[in-house]
Fold this sequence. Notes:
Layout (H helix, E strand, L loop, with lengths): L7 E5 L4 H13 L2 E8 L6 H16 L1 H4 L2 E8 L1 H6 L25 H16 L3 E3 L15 H15 L4 E3 L7 H23 L11 E2 L2 E2 L5 H18 L1
Parallel strand pairs: 1-2, 1-4, 2-3, 4-5
Antiparallel strand pairs: 6-7
Amino acid sequence: MVDTVKRKALVLFSGGQDSATCLAWALERYTYVETIGFNYGQRHVVELECRKAVLDRLKTEFPNWTARIGEDHMLDLALLGQISDTALTQEQEITFKTSGLPSTFVPARNLLFFTFASAIAYRRGLSALVGGMCETDFSGYPDCRDNTLKALQVAISLGLDTTMVLETPLMWLNKAQTWQLAENLGGPPLVDLIRIETHTCYMGDRTYWNLWGYGCGQCPACELRRNGYETYVRREAA
Length: 238
């Protein structure tokens, strides 16, 4: 078993539910955690504005984690948006392509995210990268799959000539279990923080408030988040 007590992590933190839960997961396991976000021209760029609120509240409301929260990094990856003709980076309707993939799939997005993050981690002396990718409740993105990320871990470690561990704590959890994980990590206060402060809606809509958070309520991301929250609440009430 790898000893994480003395290791340091870099969390890919978008400002959404999954990455916020992963950030709490990392803060519970690592003595020092930095965060990184990416502006790639996403339609829901409002998620980046949510990052500061989440970080600020984690620092002030969860004292056990305060001293572990390190520097936050933001990278401009506008080029990714320029080369991606997708419903996540352009004003397009969300549909499914003949390949079976949704039009929200941004090719190579997670591959690039982890690669850039590894360069930051290498320079900062951080040996683990944590991401909210999931193969259970997800949109079918091939770069979220466990095998993809295991292969990428090998490539990154070889390319840097040092061990770089890619952690994906949500890989085999559905959305209801992700809400439950948040409760296990930080109790109802963390669940409420994630409900109120994070953003998941692909449309970037923070006009409509729902019990599970802000969002249009219609896009695939909202549907996953809503269904997961409703299942989580039913289990809590049972």
